[in-house]
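Researcher: Going back to the complex we discussed earlier. I've cleaned up the inputs and rechecked each line, so this should be the final set. Can you rerun the prediction on the complete assembly and write out the structure?
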Amino acid sequence: MISLPVVLATAALLFAVGVYGALSQTNAIMVIMGIELMLGAAMLNAVGFMRYAWPDAASGAFFVLVVMTLMAVEATVGFALVIAAFRNRRTAELDDLTELRG
Amino acid sequence: MSNWTPFAILALALGGAWAVACVEQAVAGVRVAPALVLRRAAEQLDQPLAVPAGRDAWLYHLAPPLLLVAAVVALATVPWAPGFRGVDLSTGAILFSAALAYVTPSVFMAGWGAGGPLAVLGGFRFIALMLGFAMPLAMVVTAVAAPAESLRPAAIVEVQHAVPMVIVQPFAAALFVPAAMAVALLAPFDLADATTELEGGAFSRYTGLHAGLIALARKILVLAVAGMTAALFLAGWQGPLLPPAIWMALKTGAVVAGMLWAGRRLPRFELERLLVVAWIVAIPAAIGVIVLAGLITLLFYR
Amino acid sequence: MSDLATALVFWPSAAIMLVTGLYVFRTRSMARAGLLLLASLGIEGLVFLSLASEFLGVLQLLMMSGEMVIMVFFMVMFMADPGGLMGMDMTHDKRRSAAVAAGVAAALGAVAVATDWPGTVVTGAAPDIEQIGFEVMGRSMLSFLFAGMTILFAMVGGILLAKHGGRLGIPAPAGEPRDEEGAP
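Model: Rerun complete. Updated structure for the full complex:
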């Protein structure tokens, strides 16, 4: 009963939740959380393809490994930016960090 | 894994927790009274729940079950005998690390959920400690799995039929045992919730059923960590004369007694010193242990 | 896993994953937001397990707990109202972002349902950990090296960004509070 469209639709919903979070939150850390949800949805897509379309391809698993690594990397760099912003501007709210706005 | 495995694991969890409590009594020098342990546990479960006022209700009530689930899953991955290997997953060693990784969120939830400042501090101290110690724990498991060419704990036990891993990779054991003691909330690493620090720390605001669940979960954690140490480093159920299960029980009991005795003997370490050791010494040493494990695998185990 | 077992694990896990993911952004307490994200991505690990990816599921469970604990740590450090007790609303453009999210979900869902996927027979044998290991160390070794180097650069860059005085290492002046718009 669970087939590839079901898994992909679930991943689409998770991606949408991540998009909602990344767009609607003002704090940088919450935006990072939205991006993590989006990357999680991408991983779910890869696992779904590996299970239902190409069961012999271990490169799907490797893709998931790389995306997990990227989640950690993105969180690292994001938190470093938040620390730097907080140290200089005393705020991590994206609405206040508008110096580059054209 | 047969259909009886979950029940066997639950029975082992309850019985093992009671045995660990008896070993605690013996190590403390008190006369071992097995029935007294059960009676005290029943009294504690009888106490009414007294929830603190400033609590975060969801986190406060969800922390003890999470700790218990983490402890039982960690116990389930330990291989006890050739006929009873727990949940015999091919990635069992990683499931062990994953289950232990959920001890940190549950201690944090307990501290934050209780709402008092000292409880929150206890939770954050434990996070700081475990962030440093979680990496050596997972890396050493990788190093020990290398000679076995498998992450299945039963395979790691079987590859030690000639020589126990603690002799082949002593540095791995030296890194694993302190990290395992820290994650099992054992002294001398019990910064989160020692009775003399921070008024009891993260778990201090629990009474009744919650406190009983937490005590049970902590004893199961000690058993799981000791069992995995015996399986990964002391050659598990391998041994000359006695049946395999007896060997495993003896080795696990020895490790439990050793860990509890070390807790009573050694003074509690300072957080700053532990963090310095964890980040500056232990993580590079763990990387070195992995490289060494690769060399040893190529030279001796092929 | 049999079909029934798969369905029994997949449907509740997927539902909890989506609901907790949504509540991450609707809760006021920051500790709860981090732990809800842990629940969501950790249960995604259970979803992976139900889709017969044993190694990836267990790895997801392992990594998410560490990451989310760090995230909660940072949130309590840097956010204005970590307990959520003062009722500040930390969102902007809620309706527009919900509309964009709904549009994205509709588009991706339409692609998922309407495409004619190759009808492979589900053999039930996903790549096990040994095959993944050979893949990582063999054909995908170059990507693996680049991923490792990316982590290294991110770690070094992150530390440089977060240091006092940036990469020049100028220590912070002692005892002088900076004002709101303060330059270093």
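Model: Worth noting: The two ends of chain C are 59 Å apart (CA to CA).
Researcher: Good, that matches what I expected from the previous run.
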